[in-house]
Each structure stands twice: as C-alpha cells, then as structure tokens.
Amino acid sequence: MTDDLTRWRREFPILADTTYMVSHSLGAMPRRASVRLAEYAETWATRGVRAWEEGWWEMPRTVGDLIGRIIGAAPGTVLMLPNQSTAQSAILSCFDWTGPRATIVTERLNFPSNLYLFHGLERLGARVITVPSDDGMIVPIDRLLTAIDATTRLVSVSHVLFRSSAVQDLAAIVARAHAVGALVLADLYQSAGTVPVDVAALGVDFATGGSVKWLCGGPGAGYLYVHPDRRRTLAPRLTGWAAHRAPFAFDDGPIDYADDVFRFANGSPAIPALYAAMSGYEIVGEIGVAAIRARSLRQTARLIARADAAGLPIVSPRADDARGGTVVLDVPDGAAVTQMLARQAILVDYRPGAGIRAAPHFYSLDEEIDRTVDAIVEALAPRSAATRAGAWSAGG
Ligand SMILES: Cc1ncc(COP(=O)(O)O)c(C=O)c1O
Q: Whose CB among 44, 243, 319, 364 lies 3.0–4.6 Å from 265's, allowing a Cys bridge?
C-alpha cells in the first residue's frame, strides 16, 4: 500500500494497548522523546551552566528550524515559545491599536485564547470584528473577506478550525488582506503536521502554533513564524531580556531589539519542553506532511463512510479540501459516549457545541477506525432501542 506508514507504530508506546484517535488534542509520545529528556537531564547534570552556551540558548531557533521544515519557513524564521497564546500575544503587542487602522478581523470559531487576547486589545482602542458562523462549523469565506477593509490592521484566523476541523482558505485571506494593506496572523495549530502548509508560498506575515497535537511534541513548546520582511520594523511590547541584541550585556533602559527572530522572545526558554518536542518534529518532517495528509484523507473518508453507514450524524466538512484531520460526530450524549469508549481504551474527545472528535494520525490502522465507529454504535445501542420503543424521554 502506498500510504503504509504503520512501521512508525513501534515508535509510539501507547499504541500497543490503546486505540489512539485523539491526536487533534494530544499527539502520542514518540519513544525517542524519553531518550531526549534523559539527554536533557544528563546535560544539566554534567555540563551545568555551560549548557547555555553549548546549545541551550540557541534552542528556540534551532528547534524552530525543525518546525520550519514542516511549515515551509526558511531557517531562522521560527522561534519557539512556551505556547501558542504567548506567540499570538507577542505579535499583537507589536501594533498601535489607535487611529484609522485599528481593526482586527477574526472569526467567531477561532480558538478561545486568541479571542480573549483580541478582546483584551479593545482596552487599547482596537476594534474587533468576529465574523460569525451560521452553523457553528464553518465561516463563509466571502463573509470573512468582506470584513477586511482599509481599517484592518491585522487579520488573525485559524487555518483549520479546532471545533469542526474545517480548513479555511488562507490564500484568499492573505490576498484580500494584503490588497488593503493589512497583515495576516495564522494559527496553524490544527493544520501543521496533518494538512500541508507553506507559509512562504502563502505569504502569511505571521504564524503560530504548538506541539501538543499533530506534531507529537507534547506541552510547553509553541512556535512563532515571522516573515523575514516584517521582522526589523516590529517592536513587541511583550518582550524580555532574551529579545535583546546582546542579552548577556544586561543593559538597562529601553530594549535594543535583536535583529533576528529572537526579537520576539521574552524570558528564558523552556529547555526541557524543547528537548521533549524535537522527536515528534523529526518524525513528522521525515515522513513528510504530504504523505501524512494522503493517509489522513483516506482514513477520515473511511471513518465518514462507516459513520454514514451506521447512521451517525457527521457535522464536520466532508469534502477533501474542506476537512482537516478530524471528523466530528454529533451523537446524543457525546460526553458520556466518549467516557464509555475510554473504558475500552479507545480515546476520542468531546467538545460542547460540536460533538465527538475522532482523528486518525499517520500511525493509525484502518481497523482502529472501524473499532471506534463500532464502539460508538454499541454505546448508543441501548439508547436507540429505547428510542424505538418510544421511551426516549425516560432515557434522557
Ligand atoms: C487552533 C488552536 N489554537 C490554539 C490552541 C491552544 O494553544 P496554546 O494552549 O498553546 O496557547 C489550540 C488547542 O489547544 C488550538 O486547537
């Protein structure tokens, strides 16, 4: 089979006894991550403070280059930060939110952290336009494009929406934003590692994401991409000594920003998280997102077909170019069904307003998809029988 990536399964210990359909939430840990964490401990133990100049200080950039390979960013344009929210904050802190160009355009279905940050900017004078969705699953692209005009400073959108896994048309958004002089900040968290992204080809100005999900890098390692042409003119207010041109000079007074991507740094980097995260990036980079996407499209199509056959309602997009790596099934009592599956070591998750989210990743087997759908059908069986007997209200 051309998409046979199952040889990677032995690299992920949890797969031995768990049907892992939840990589949109927390990707499985690569075996090599524990080797890397041991390396971190050994370096700390034996090299002590010398470790900073033997690689630790540069890690936000060197590890960022591993992400760059996955998202089409040139070396030296990606900086690791502790999470995606911090990465968005660093960019938002670069702008003046007063005057005629003080609007930020986003979508109501953006990740809550980002929306909280945008609304916080209202205190500084920003006007926030949250483009609505009619069905809670997709945002009509024309509606989004129409909201972008000459008052727009920044368009901040998700490439793939976390709740529905709908893919948004970043190319169209960048084209419209740039045509009116606005910049684009894209949240790649739900795309990078499962849906191909090429930030350079797309021309996005900034991109953010993290490692917890499709990149199998674990918590504590977010990333920020900044287009090289944007870098030198920006002065983030969210800053710190790691962003200084000469941090070890410990200068007082206003910051003299670094010219390179460290300009967007703040305090000391989260070194253990970077050690933990590298293995996932290496594996995803080695396989290549094109191969991961091809397998994901085939397996999510299988999941959709099995769910259709069982009469389970699918609320995420169905078309190949419109769906990300996750399928969302709006079954009754999704939270309880998710727990019933967990008791059988089948891991999915549930999001209010959407339903059960299930996602194969490159290490998933076709039979695991079938097992997941079968288990959902089985969990719903008593309920369906009760419904048939007209006793639905008694069953809740
Ligand atoms: C699209 C998206 N953005 C952001 C986040 C969260 O980012 P962080 O916790 O790294 O700030 C998530 C998931 O947790 C997400 O799905």
A: 243
